[in-house]
């Protein structure tokens, strides 16, 4: 449950469903085709990678292309020494969030180097970036910069799903997947 535009007169409560469609990028075609089922009607994508594993962050380009271009099969290595086509992400209208995990496992001397390298990912995707120390719950505490980024991401997802480009609500949609007054009004399964 997410409070859209929390603290404003436009605040409304929405239910957001998250699916983990993980697996290795080069996994069997049956697993890849199963993941593709979840890419229909995607309203937002959270890309999660391991900050201690450079290959994990490089694979985010392949993951994003698989999700954004579900009809096309990405082939070959999309990232080689940081060389790839940034234009593939230029027209993306789906909100993206990049989350790096295991910040706590990177030695202080290497953190700047690793975080600089991964910052380019978020920039290329035109996305917010959150890096998490997995041993410290304060990294997502209410009011923290990471919590604000996560909330903004969910707001963008809701806007993509329920609002027209001019900011007007799509008639009938806000009540369909919204919790109001403690009850679910009407839930539609696509």
Automatic annotation (TrEMBL):
| Subunit (UniProt) | Homodimer. Interacts with GPR89; the interaction stabilizes GPR89. Interacts with RAP1GDS1.
- What family does this belong to? Belongs to the small GTPase superfamily. Rab family.
Could you give a GO molecular-function term held by this entry?
A: GTP binding
The residues forming the signal peptide are none
Task: Report keywords, A-Z.
Answer: GTP-binding, Nucleotide-binding
Q: Please indicate if the UniProt record lists GTP-binding as a keyword.
A: yes
What role does this protein play? Required for KRAS signaling regulation and modulation of cell proliferation. Regulator of KRAS prenylation, and probably prenylation of other small GTPases. Required for lymphocyte development and function. Not required for myeloid cell development.
> What superkingdom heads the lineage?
Eukaryota
Instruction: Show the InterPro entries listed in the entry.
Output: P-loop_NTPase
Any keyword GTP-binding?
yes
Entry's transmembrane regions: none
Q: Kindly provide the name given to this protein in its UniProt entry.
A: Rab-like protein 3
